[in-house]
Write a structure and sequence with these properties.
Elements (H helix, E strand, L loop, with lengths): L1 E2 L6 E4 L7 E2 L5 E8 L5 E8 L13 E4 L3 E5 L6 E5 L4 E2 L4 E5 L4 E8 L5 E11 L40
Parallel strand pairs: 6-12
Antiparallel strand pairs: 1-3, 2-4, 4-5, 7-10, 8-11, 9-10, 11-12
């Protein structure tokens, strides 16, 4: 919305309109000629340019283990960044750390110097290790044996005797 200001008795925009304000939707050069009651004529021109807003990227959907920290760096070129949910964000600006104990969506809103905004969101999935249980304490007679199993679902195993199998 271009506004030539109050206090003039005549307005003439380059498109022939004669109001105080002109609504523009496209980039271009816009000019207005105004006159006051004393017969003084004033002219002004403004160039409206389209702002190219960079695409905001904060990363891909990610899976972390519970207790781990995710380091995020947003696309540079913005003057400010707002992250949500705030309770999971450590730091500020374009580079932050995320800490969460549960699955959440992380969102960022970045603003250009001209006030244009860009948005991005990623999903953070939190993995928790399966509960490790070797069962109840047991005893057996000399010469016998017991089979102890850590269960499935782990990438690696290391027993106190150096064995590396699930049981």
């Amino acid at each position: 919305q271009l506004n030539a200001g109050n206090g003039f008795n005549s307005y003439l925009w380059q498109d022939g309109s004669a109001s105080q304000q002109l609504i523009v939707n496209l980039p271009g050069t816009y000019s207005v000629t105004v006159g006051n009651v004393c017969g003084d004529i004033f002219k002004d021109t403004v160039i409206v340019q389209e702002v190219v807003v960079p695409q905001l990227r904060i990363g891909n959907d990610t899976t972390l283990c519970k207790g781990d920290t995710l380091h995020l760096s947003a696309t540079p070129g913005f003057t400010s960044y707002a992250w949500a949910p705030a309770s999971n964000i450590l730091g500020q600006g374009g580079t932050v750390n995320i800490v969460s104990a549960q699955n959440i969506a992380i969102s960022a809103i970045a603003t250009t110097a001209e006030g244009c905004k860009a948005y991005d969101t990623l999903a953070l999935f939190i993995k928790t290790a399966p509960l490790l249980s070797l069962g109840k304490d047991t005893s057996f007679c000399f010469g016998d044996s017991a089979l102890i199993s850590a269960g499935n679902g782990y990438q690696q195993y290391l027993w106190s005797n150096g064995a590396a199998s699930p049981s």
